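hiii, so i know i said id send this last week but things got crazy w the move. better late than never?? heres the sequnce for the chain we talked about at the cafe, plus the structure i predicted for it. fair warning i was half asleep when i ran it
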Amino acid sequence: MALSYYFDGQLEESLQSYEKSLSLTEDERDKSDILVAMGMVAYTAGNFDLAKSHLLKSSQTKLPSGHGLIALASLGLLMGHHTLVNAALDEIKKHPDYRTEHMEGSCAYLDSALSLIQGSVVEAKRKIQVALIRYPKSSTMWNKLATFIFQRAPILSLEVAGRCAEIASIHHPSDLSLMITSAASIGSKSFASTSSDIAHYTASLHTAEKAVHTNPKSPENWVLLATAALAKSVFIEGVDSSSTAISTARLALLKAEENLSRLQEALKTTVSKRLVAKIKVAVNLRVHAIETLIWAYLHGGNYELAFLLSDNAASQYEGDENFSKDLLFLKIVTEMLWKSKRNELSNDLLSSAMAICDGGNDSIRKYKVLSSVCFQLGLPLVSELAIRKCIKLAAQNGLAKTQCTCLIHLTLLSIKCFKKDRKEKWFDLAEEALSEATRLSPDDQLIGDLRDALHNA
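okay and structure toks below
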C-alpha cells in the first residue's frame, strides 16, 4: 500500500503507511528496508534532513540494507557532508554483500566522486580504474569511467572516453554508452583534426541515430543526433546537405524546449531539489540545442536567422555565468557575417569579438572560430592575429597537440593568402609555422602534405 501511495504521488500517506509497517515488524532486515523506503519518500518530498535521519536509522540496525548505505553515502555527497560519506563508505565495505559488482562498484564510484569534490582528480580516476580491474566486464563501471573522462578530461581525451563507452556497450548496450560513444567521436575529430574522415563521421551519425531509436523520448539523444548531423554536413557533405542539418537541429531544439517546459510546469506543483537539478540540466541541453541550430544556420549561409536566434538567446541568458559569454560570442560572430553581407561591418564589432575571446577556459576555441570567420570575410590580418593568440595560449598552457593544430591552421591560412596575392610575407609565415609544427609533431603526415602544398603554391 505504501508503495502504491508513493507512485501515485501521495507522499505523506506513503510515509504514514511505512511507519505503520515499521511498528509491526520485528525482523531487523525488514526494519532496515522500510527505513530506506521512508528515506526515499522523504527525499522525493525534498526533505533531505528527514531522509538522512531515516537512512541513518537504517544503517544502525543489526542487518543494515546495502542499498540504504549506498543511498546514505549518495545523500551525504548531495548535502556536502563529507564525514557522513566516509562513514557510510566504511560501513559499505564491512557489509556481507560488499564483494559484489553492484556494491563494490557503487562504493568505488561514490568514493571517486568524493575525491573529485575534494580536488583530487587523479585519485578519483584511479578509484574507478581499480574497480574495473576487479570487474573488467562490468558495463556499469566502463560507463562510469567513460562519463568521468568525458566530463572531466581535456578535449583531446575524448577518444579514450569513446573507447570506454564502446567497451561498455559490448557488455551491455545502453542509452548512455551510445551517447558518449557518438559525442566523443564527434568532439575528438571536430577539435583535434583538420581533415575530413568520411567513415568516422558516418559512424558517429549512425551511433547517434541508434541512440534515438533506442530511446526516442530522450531529448539528449535528439540533440546529439543534431550535433552528429551537423558535423557530417560540415566536414564531409558540404553546404548542399545543410538543410538536413538545419531541420534536425530545429527538431532537437523543439524536443529540448518541450522537456524544459514539462519540468518547469511540474515545479509549480512539486518543489524539490531533485526537480530543480533536472531543470538545470534541461536548461543546459536547451542552450546546446540553440547553439547547434545557430551553427547549422551559419553553415547553410542563413546569417540573418543565425543572428536573430543568437541575439534572442543572448538577451534571454544575459548575466547567466554559464551561458552569457558563449551566447554573446555567437551573437557577435553571426552579426559580423550578416552585416558583412550587407556591407555594414564595423571596426567596433571586430574589437568586441576580440575582447570577448580573452579570458575563460575556451579562449582557444573562440579565437580559432574568429580566425576562420575573419578569413571568410576577407580580413587575413585579423585572422592571423586571432590564430596567433591561439598558439600563444596553447603554448602557455602546455597544450602541445593543440598548439600544433593551431600552427597547421596558420599554415593553411598563409598558403591561401600567398596563392591569392603572391606576397612573400605569407610564404615565409607558412614556412615558419610548418617548422614549429614539425618540431612539435615530427611524424604528422598532414604536415608533410602541407609542405608539399606550400612548395607547389
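btw The mean pLDDT is 79. thought thatd interest u
miss u guys!!
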